[in-house]
Write a structure and sequence with these properties.
The chain is of the alpha+beta class. It is built from 26 helices and 34 strands. Strands 3-2-1-4-7-9-8-10-13 form a nine-stranded mixed beta sheet, with helices on both faces.
C-alpha cells in the first residue's frame, strides 16, 4: 500500500514538472511577435484556462479567436466579473499585438493540460512561470517580485493571528498578500498598472481575491483606503499589520513635510505614515535600504521617535545579491506596539544565513527564523534603548556586533586637525583620496608627485605634519604627511590628525591600522549601502594595542625585516617567470585571435555603412544624421568609432612586432567604455544590442548622489574582453545567423566587494551544462561544436587578472538569455 502511495506521489510530481516545462516552452510561440516584457500575457491566458473560459474558445477558427475571448470574458458571471473585465482591458492590448495563429496555438496547447493537476497545483505552476520570466527579464524585471524565501521570512516575523487586517502600500506583485491565511483581510496598493495586473492574477491564483482589496493606486498620492472598505478593519479603522517594500532610495516628487522634518524618501514616508495606521497591538514591517538606518536629518529624528516610544522590536541586516536584479544590501525593520522586549531592540545579522553566488543568493529563512526564536547570540544582540541613544540612534546592525578589544582608543593617541578654509582661488598641492598611499611600509605622502592645481573652497589648508585618513572606501589608506614649509589642501572626505609621538611610534600606528582587529572594528562602524564611509568620531573609537615605545619600535623593525625578505623572494620568482620562453608565442596567438575579431567587426561595420548610404540615397546625409537608432549614434560618431577600431588594430600589430602587449591603464567611465564597445562590435546583419541597463539603485550613495562607475583599465584591453564575448555569441550562440538574435548588457555595483559588475548575455544556443568557467578560461578548451581555437576565454581571464578583475560564466538552460558573462572590475574610489 505504501509503495502504491509513493508511486502515485512521484507520478503527480512528474506531471507537475512536465506541465511547468510545457508552459515555459510556450514562450517560444511568442518570440518575434511581442516584446519579452509582455510575455506575462501567458499567465492571463493560463488563468482563463483555469476558469474554463478557453474550452469554448478552442472550437473557434483562428481568425475569430480574439473576438470569442472578448465575448466570453464580457459574459463571465462567476466570482467578480468586474475584476476579470478590468484585467482583460489591460491584457487585451497585448493580445491584439499577437497574431491569430499564435493565440490559437497557445489555446490548443493549454487545452492539453491536465485539469486536475492544474486545479490542485495552480499557485505553484503560476509562480514557477512568473519567477522564471522575472529571471529571464534580468535587469528589465524590476524589483516588484520578492524572493519567496524573503517574503515567507517576513510574514513569519509578523506572527499574525486569525482574522487580522493587513495594509500593504507599495505592494508590487502582492508577495505578502498571497501568504496570508484565509481569515485575514488584505488591503494593497500598487501604482504600476502592469505590476498591479500581474499581482491581481497572482492573488486569483492563490484564491485570495475574496479577502483582498488590491487596487491600482499611488500609495504616496492616495495614502490609505476608502472609508467604506476600512470599516471591515474595525478599531477605528486601524490595522494589525502595515507592511511594505518601498522602492529603495525613491525620492518623493513633491515637498512633503512630516512630523520630524521634510520627508524625502518613500521609505521614510511609509514608516512615518504607517505608524499612524496601527492599532494598539499592531506591527509595522519595512524592507528598507541601509541608508535609512543611519542617515541624519529628518530620518534620524524618525529613528529617535521610535526609540523613545519603545517601538523597535528588531532590525535585521541582509546582504546584496539577495533581492532580484540589484546588488544592494538591505535591512528589515520591525516595529511593534505591544512588543515583549521592552526597553531594548534585537539586532540580527542575517548575512550568515544567505548562500549562493554573488548575484543569485538564497536566504535560508527557516534556519534564520529558528535562530531568532532560540535567541542565538552569535547572530542576535539585545541592545538597550540607552545604548542606541548613545550611538545617536544609529540602527546599523554591524555597529552592535563589534567585538570588545583590549587596548587604547585612537582618540587618546591622535587629535583631529581642523584646517583653514580656502575663501579665494589658490594654487597648491591638492590631496584627494586617490593620492593617499595604501602600503603600510611605504605610507609617506610625497608632494612632488602631485601637480600644483587650483584648490576648491571646500578644501582645507593643512600646515603641519599629520596622519591623513580616507573617510570613504573600504580601506582608510593611512598616509603620513611630513610638513617642511609647504602646505597641502585636503578634500572634505579626508580626515587629518596630529599624532602624539610621545605615546605612539608613527610606523607602529600605521601597521596597527592594517591589522585584522582594526579592520574588523572599522567595518562595524562603516555606513553606506554603496561605497562605505566612516565618521571621524567612529574612526577615533577604534582600539589598538599599545606596548611601550621601545616594544613598538622592536615590533616594527621585525615586521620590516620580514617584509624585505618577502620582497626578495618575490623578485626571485619574477626572474624565473620572465625566463619562460613560450609566453611570447602565447601572447602572439592571442593578438592574432583578437585581430581577426577586430577585422570581422570592421568588415561588418563597413557593410553597415554601405547599407545605410544605399537606404538613404534620397536623403540629405550629413555627419549628424542618425546612423543607428538602436544605440543612438550619429553617422559622425559611427565613423569615429570605425577609426578607433582601425587604431586598435594598428596598436595590436605594433604589439605583435614587439612580441609583448604593454597596457596603458587610465581612469575611464565604464558606461562610456561599454557604449563605445557596443558601437565597435555591433553586427546588425546577425544580432542587435538591447539598450544598456544600469542598476541605478546599486550605484546610489544613501541619498548623497550617484557613485560614478570609474575604473582603471587600458581601453584596448577592455575592447579585447568585449570582442571575445561578442565573438563567442556569434560563433557559438547564434547558429541561426538571421532572426531575433539579441545581446543584453547590464551594469550594477557590488557594494560588498567594491566592484562594477558588467553582465553580457545572449539569447542564442545554450552551452553544454558541463561547460564551466574553468573550461572557458583554460587555453585550448572549447565547446564541442565550436570552430574556434579556445583562446578567447583564456584571453579574458589573463587581461582581467592584470586589473584584479573577475569573470564568471552563467549557463542557465531555462532562461531566454541562457549564456551570461559576468565581468567584475574594481571601482576607483573618488570623492563623492
Amino acid at each position: 500500500m505504501l509503495c502504491i502511495m509513493i508511486d502515485k506521489e512521484v507520478k503527480i510530481i512528474d506531471e507537475v514538472v512536465e506541465l511547468k516545462s510545457k508552459l515555459w516552452n510556450s514562450v517560444n510561440l511568442l518570440r518575434g511577435s511581442i516584446s519579452i516584457t509582455d510575455f506575462h500575457f501567458i499567465l492571463y491566458l493560463l488563468t482563463l484556462r483555469r476558469i474554463n473560459l478557453l474550452d469554448k474558445v478552442s472550437t473557434a477558427e483562428p481568425e475569430d479567436i480574439k473576438n470569442k475571448i472578448n465575448s466570453l470574458v464580457s459574459k463571465y458571471q462567476l466570482g467578480d466579473p468586474n475584476l476579470l473585465q478590468e484585467l482583460h482591458e489591460y491584457f487585451e492590448r497585448i493580445m491584439y499585438d499577437i497574431s491569430d495563429d499564435v493565440i490559437y496555438k497557445l489555446v490548443e496547447l493549454f487545452q492539453e493540460f491536465n485539469q486536475k493537476i492544474l486545479d490542485e497545483h495552480f499557485p505553484e505552476i503560476f509562480d514557477d512561470f512568473l519567477f522564471r520570466l522575472n529571471e529571464s527579464l534580468g535587469k528589465l524585471g524590476g524589483e516588484s517580485l520578492l524572493p519567496k524565501e524573503v517574503s515567507r521570512f517576513i510574514m513569519n516575523l509578523a506572527e499574525l493571528p486569525n482574522y487580522s487586517s493587513v495594509y500593504n502600500p507599495f505592494a508590487g506583485l502582492a508577495s505578502f498578500g498571497v501568504l496570508l491565511n484565509d481569515t485575514s483581510s488584505y488591503f494593497g496598493q500598487e501604482k504600476n498598472q502592469t505590476t498591479w495586473a500581474l499581482g491581481m492574477l497572482r492573488i486569483m491564483a492563490y484564491e485570495k481575491e475574496n479577502n483582498s482589496h488590491f487596487v491600482c493606486d499611488d500609495s504616496i498620492e492616495n495614502w490609505g483606503y476608502d472609508s467604506s472598505l476600512m470599516a471591515e478593519v474595525g478599531e477605528n479603522s486601524k490595522f494589525d499589520l502595515v507592511i511594505a517594500n518601498p522602492p529603495f532610495g525613491f525620492r518623493l516628487p513633491n515637498v512633503t513635510e512630516g512630523k520630524f522634518g521634510t520627508i524625502k524618501t518613500a521609505e521614510h514616508f511609509f514608516i512615518e505614515k504607517g505608524i499612524d495606521e496601527l492599532n494598539s497591538k499592531g506591527k509595522l514591517i519595512a524592507v528598507v535600504s541601509l541608508g535609512l538606518l543611519f542617515r541624519a536629518g529628518a530620518e534620524q529624528n524618525l529613528r529617535q521617535y521610535v526609540i523613545e516610544n519603545d517601538l523597535i522590536e528588531a532590525v535585521i541586516s541582509l546582504p546584496g545579491g539577495l533581492l532580484p536584479h540589484t546588488m544592494i544590501p538591505f535591512g528589515i525593520i520591525v516595529l511593534n506596539k505591544s512588543k515583549k522586549n521592552t526597553g531594548s531592540a534585537y539586532f540580527i545579522n542575517g548575512n550568515e544565513f544567505v548562500k549562493g553566488p554573488r548575484n543569485n543568493k538564497i536566504l535560508d529563512d527557516k534556519v534564520l527564523l529558528e535562530n531568532i526564536k532560540n535567541k542565538d547570540f552569535q547572530y542576535i544582540r539585545s541592545i538597550s534603548n540607552e545604548e542606541i541613544f548613545r550611538n545617536d540612534f544609529n540602527l546599523s546592525v554591524p555597529r552592535y556586533f563589534k567585538n570588545v578589544f583590549d587596548g587604547v582608543y585612537l582618540r587618546d593617541l591622535i587629535k583631529p586637525i581642523r584646517g583653514q578654509k580656502t575663501y579665494e582661488i589658490q594654487f597648491g598641492t591638492v590631496v584627494k583620496i586617490k593620492d593617499l598611499r595604501d602600503d603600510k611600509f611605504n605610507y609617506k605622502f610625497d608632494p612632488n608627485l602631485n601637480q600644483q592645481i587650483e584648490a576648491l573652497t571646500s578644501e582645507q589648508v593643512i600646515s603641519q605634519s599629520c596622519l591623513l585618513i580616507s573617510s570613504v572606501g573600504e580601506n582608510v589608506k593611512p598616509t603620513y604627511f611630513n610638513y617642511i614649509g609647504e602646505s597641502i589642501y585636503v578634500s572634505s572626505n579626508i580626515f587629518a590628525f596630529h599624532i602624539d609621538e610621545e605615546k605612539v611610534v608613527i610606523d607602529y600606528l600605521i601597521n596597527e591600522l592594517y591589522l585584522d582587529s582594526s579592520i574588523e572594528q572599522l567595518k562595524s562602524f562603516q555606513i553606506g549601502s554603496g561605497i562605505p564611509k566612516i565618521k571621524r568620531d567612529d574612526f577615533l573609537s577604534i582600539i589598538i594595542e599599545l606596548p611601550s615605545l621601545n616594544e613598538q619600535k622592536a615590533k616594527v623593525k621585525g615586521l620590516r625585516e620580514e617584509h624585505i625578505k618577502n620582497k626578495e623572494r618575490e623578485l626571485v620568482l619574477e626572474r624565473e617567470l620572465l625566463g619562460i620562453k613560450h609566453e611570447s608565442f602565447r601572447e602572439f596567438a592571442s593578438i592574432k585571435h583578437t585581430f581577426r575579431q577586430y577585422l570581422n567587426s570592421l568588415k561588418s561595420n563597413v557593410a553597415g555603412t554601405r547599407k545605410f548610404i544605399l537606404n538613404n540615397t534620397d536623403q540629405n546625409i550629413t555627419i549628424n544624421s542618425i546612423y543607428s537608432n538602436n544605440i543612438n549614434r550619429t553617422l559622425g560618431e559611427h565613423l569615429i568609432s570605425l577609426e578607433g577600431t582601425i587604431d586598435s588594430m594598428s596598436m595590436l600589430l605594433t604589439s605583435a612586432d614587439e612580441q609583448i602587449v604593454t597596457s596603458r591603464p587610465i581612469e575611464v567611465d565604464l558606461i562610456e567604455l561599454i557604449k563605445e564597445a557596443q558601437s565597435r562590435f555591433t553586427n546588425n546583419e546577425i544580432f542587435h544590442f538591447e539598450n544598456l541597463h544600469i542598476d541605478l539603485e546599486s550605484f546610489s550613495q544613501d541619498g548623497d548622489g550617484q557613485i560614478a562607475p570609474i575604473i582603471q583599465i587600458d581601453p584596448e584591453d577592455f575592447y579585447r574582453i568585449f570582442s571575445n564575448i561578442i565573438s563567442n555569441a556569434v560563433d557559438h550562440g547564434f547558429k541561426n545567423k538571421v532572426g531575433n538574435n539579441l545581446i543584453r548588457t547590464s551594469l550594477s555595483f557590488d557594494a560588498e566587494n567594491l566592484y562594477c559588475i558588467l553582465e553580457v548575455s545572449n539569447n542564442g544556443k545554450k552551452m553544454a551544462p558541463s561547460f564551466t568557467v574553468k573550461h572557458l578560461t583554460t587555453r585550448g578548451e572549447k565547446t564541442s561544436d565550436s570552430t574556434g581555437a579556445g583562446i578567447g576565454g583564456a584571453d579574458i581571464k589573463s587581461i582581467l587578472d592584470k586589473y584584479q578583475g573577475t569573470v564568471t560564466l552563467k549557463n542557465e538552460n531555462e532562461s531566454t538569455f541562457p549564456v551570461t558573462y559576468e565581468i567584475g572590475l574594481p571601482i576607483v574610489v573618488f570623492e563623492i
